[in-house]
Specification:
about 140 residues; Rossmann fold; about 10% strand
């Protein structure tokens, strides 16, 4: 499992220590922020966003656009974006809930993962593609006349 992010407080150091003390160094790797987002996402089995607070969930949207399964805490608009499979949503304050969502993903067949990824791409195209956003704005203005 690869985690990418910017350490803004002691949480990064604390996470490194917990990983080491638990013997998970071969399983979990923490990395600094990267600009190689698309290539890393395309090589991943799934995208995870585990956060207590989120503005616009960029990692979720980017993962969806890459046809990936996304596992995320129920923050911001994530529940609306991933409403087609709520088993991949988890409660930020609950390690058990996060574990259950990850376990659910692990038990998905390759066919199910592909289907979820394709559904995620459809949601991303509908909601995030420039031409669709412009079209939605134009429709909004047309109805205001």
């Amino acid at each position: 499992m690869d985690w990418y992010g910017n350490p803004i407080d002691k949480s990064f150091e604390n996470a490194m220590n917990k990983i080491k003390n638990s013997g998970f160094e071969q399983i979990i790797s923490l990395h600094p922020v990267t600009h190689e987002i698309i290539s890393l996402m395309n090589s991943a089995d799934a995208i995870g966003l585990f956060s207590f607070y989120e503005g616009f969930p960029n990692a979720v949207c980017e993962g969806m656009a890459c046809k990936k399964v996304v596992i995320s805490t129920s923050v911001s608009d994530v529940p609306k974006l991933l409403s087609h499979d709520e088993n991949l949503l988890c409660i930020p304050e609950s390690p058990q809930s996060i574990r259950n969502a990850i376990r659910y993903f692990i038990n998905l067949s390759e066919k199910q993962r592909t289907q979820i990824g394709l559904q995620n791409r459809k949601v991303a195209e509908k909601n995030f593609m420039k031409k669709n956003i412009v079209s939605q704005y134009l429709n909004l203005f047309e109805h205001e006349k």
